[in-house]
User: Fold this.
Amino acid sequence: MIKAMGLYSKAGVIPAIGAYSYQEPGDPHLRTALHELVTQCRENADSFIWLGVFEPTKPEMELIAEAFELPHLQVEDAANPQQRAKIELDESGHGLAIIKLLDYVESTSDVHTGQLAIFIGPWFVVTVRHGSIGQLDDIRHRIETSPTLRAHGPLSVFYAILDAAVDRYLSVSDSVAEDVEEVETDVFAQSSIASNANRIYRLKRENVEIRRAIVPLLITAHDFSQGDRMYIPAELKPYFQDIGDHLLRVSDSVDTSDNLLMTMLVASTSLQDLQQNRDMRKISAYVAIAAVPTMIAAIYGMNFDNMPELHEPYGYPVVLGVMGIICVFLFRAFKKSGWL
Assistant:
């Protein structure tokens, strides 16, 4: 589905093509619209096209690939919603970037993932989005209202998208870090040990989602931070350096959260084992206490004739007293040793 398309230049956004007129899959007028848009772009030397696509059909993707002469392998990668994140741009800043889009659900502490593929050419940007996450309306508005960004051509769209995505990474990682702190408090408060282990596992799984999004971009992040990408104009280098620094910060946060979660999982398991040991000691202590009257009762329940104490007038209360004294002694002994 074509979500938006338009012609951009430093002078402004040229509204010759209706940006939101082709939202139905398989629109028969799409080929004509693309042809007119490309022709108009070539007539304006300083302009570029931005075409936004949401979960395109195969015919739509083939038509777009034909119009912008996109490499077949890159088109296949962009059409795959499970593709690994990557940034593959040549020295001119042209190529394909695939980034993961993250969203944090406060009510369930879940991290949801989407995907955005960005084709960057000398006179066009094509974005292919999968999943409900990552609406580009705000980014498009930012480009439309910033002549400074539009002056840098297609690379400005790449910067704006990456900047918004990385800012979202920061927000999601901070939210997960807060959840980790809450679980840490609960673990060492020894409240509901079994549920704590389940929460730790779930947080580790959400942390993995963030890691999958950022780890493939870390090499690029280092290059951005050091200003080693030759295709980045001098005016934009500080902004890309900021993106690189933010990516590295998210990576550090993810590693810290992962280490804390692993430590807490070990601690939670140890606390659970300790609680089980305490329960077993209590059970053993009470069994030992109950064994004394059981043994004495078993002896006198054998019904032998030659048991002189059975005929003593005080035999019964004496035996009960002995059982009681031994049980009290054992109870105090177990209590003092910490078993009860």
